[in-house]
Amino acid sequence: MMILKQYYLGCLAHASYLIGDESTGEAAIVDPQRDIDRYLADAKEHHLTIRYVILTHFHADFLAGHIELRNRAGATIVLGSRAQAEFEFLAATDGQTLPLGQVRLKILETPGHTPEGISLLVFSPQHSDSQPYAVLTGDTLFIGDVGRPDLLASVGVTADELAEMLYASIDRLRKLPDTTLVYPAHGAGSMCGKNLSKETVSTIGEQKKFNYAMQPMSLEAFKALVTADQPEAPDYFVYDAILNRKERTDLDANMQKSLRKMSVEEVLEAQQKGAQLLDVREAVDFEGAHLAGSLQIGLQGKYATWCGSLLDHQHPIVVIAEPGDEPEAVMRLGRIGFDHIAGYLEGGMSALENHPNLVKSIDRITAPALARLLESSPPPLVLDVRSDNERAATHLAGSLHIPLAGLAERIGELPEDRLLVVHCEGGYRSAIACSLLARSGRTKLMDLVGGIKAWQASQLPVEGSPSSCSAGSPSCSR
Fold first, then answer.
1. Which pLDDT belongs to residue 439?
2. Element containing residue 446 per DSSP (H, E)
3. Residue 127, Cα to own-chain centre: how many angstroms?
4. In what order do the strands lie in the sheet with 341-345?
5. Is 309 exposed, middle or buried (0-12, 13-18, 19+ CB in 10 A)?
6. Is 201 exposed, middle or buried (0-12, 13-18, 19+ CB in 10 A)?
7. What is the Cα–Cα distance from 390 to 477, expressed in whole angstroms?
8. Which of the 8 DSSP states describes residue 413?
9. According to the model, what pLDDT value does residue 153 have?
10. Theoretical Cys-Cys bridge with 343: which of 260, 290, 326, 444, CB 3.0 to 4.6 Å?
11. Do residues 112 and 163 make contact, with C-beta atoms less than 8 angstroms apart?
12. What is the pTM of this model?
């Protein structure tokens, strides 16, 4: 009997898969996340040997677990025939079949998001020997969208060339039977596309009806459509796309090295040498009390994405967390290839009880209190750190707009002698922004509790067009 299991990692909007034949005990893992324990546990439960680990392409938004599965399960790494990598791999050609007992995986070359992209046709005798039961489309075809062809990760190939490849690949997928199940590598919230659905499985027939990019159109019309209005990709995408090609240290070895306890004195010494202090606690706790100079990115939100956007690879990272949360913080950094962790502050903020001079705070303000404050003279400057789409949908009159991803480079545009009140949609990004501003030396600073959602819930006035920010858009996020 065939097993086809989807694993969905919400924080990265990432789907990976286990495909196996219980009768012969052979299995493959497709597009795995870097922490692989869940695949190993399920393989053990179903008495499966992981024979292959397959990457549909070199992912840019996360570091895949192919090295880990090779090292711990003895799996053969499989890539498309156009791929080039430092490690040994099976270069699978178009039409090649990978047998897993009675289950067959047929390679379908589908470049466009990247040059080496492939999809996997899944055949199972319990369904049909001649018709594919499912297709794993990687980042070529999403539910409601297609993979963007403009990422800088595709070094050496232009977006125009990739769009032409994608056009041909989508045509190949369009010709599959309508009943073929579609399993992509990402869902809503991923920046690998612009209009991904919250659904994680569909059919070719449904996508032919409802996916804008699956409609019949000319090549030029397709190019214009799929390249327009794409969200700005975080800087770490290029780094991860390159790192996924390299031989590297696996996650377990990195975790052992990174989970090093550090005293207050050691943290301060590291900070003086350029280390990045990363506070992963919730916003309310950080703003109540934090180590001066630290950047807050909470574990409960899009932690990995914002860490990848705002931290660099040149300077070591010191984690400040609630005791017990350090392994999760380090592991999730490892998922995006941030292995340069110096350690963590032993005891968290309790270690600073005898160092009050090192502790800072940031004021918070409710929506009604801000409304009253805006009537004073001079009023505060409201800083909106949301995306362009969110801003167009609704915003506070007279507010200044600088998206969070570009704030660090534009802090100099903000007045130093005027109170700043920062907001986002719900409060996650505004806390990050406040920590950036405080780290730069700004002291006249407040965070709007609950963001613009709280402002609207208080029946306070806004401007904009609600239709500008579609549900599920990766740019309309926390």
1. 97
2. strand 445-448
3. 34
4. 261-262, 341-345, 317-320, 276-279, 295-296
5. buried
6. middle
7. 9
8. G
9. 44
10. 260
11. yes
12. 0.91
Per the omega criterion (within 30 degrees of 0), is the bond before 378 cis?
yes
Which ranges constitute the DSSP H helices of 175-302?
204-210, 219-227, 236-243, 251-258, 264-272, 283-288
Closest CA to 117 of 107, 126, 125: 107
For the purposes of burial, counting CB atoms within 10 Å of the CB of 397, is it exposed (0-12), middle (13-18) or buried (19 or more)? exposed
Sheet of 400-401, strands arranged across: 363-365, 445-448, 420-423, 381-384, 400-401
Q: Which of 144, 139, 136 is nearest to 154 (CA)?
A: 139
Q: Within 62-107, where are the H helices? A: 66-73
Amino acid at 402: I
Residues listed for the chain: 478
Q: Which residues of the chain have pLDDT under 70?
A: 152-155, 465-478
Structure token pair of residue 4: 């086809």
pLDDT confidence of residue 126: 79
Q: What is the spatial distance between Cα 418 and Cα 457, in angstroms, rounded to a whole number?
A: 27
Report angle CA 312, 318, 320 to the nearest 5 degrees: 120
Which domains are present in the chain?
A: 2-240 (3.60.15.10), 249-360 (3.40.250.10), 363-468 (3.40.250.10)
Q: How far apart are CA 314 and CA 143, in angstroms?
A: 37
Check residue 466 and give its pLDDT. Answer: 56
Q: How high is the pLDDT of residue 198?
A: 84
* Contact partners, residue 409, CB within 8 Å, separation at least 6: none
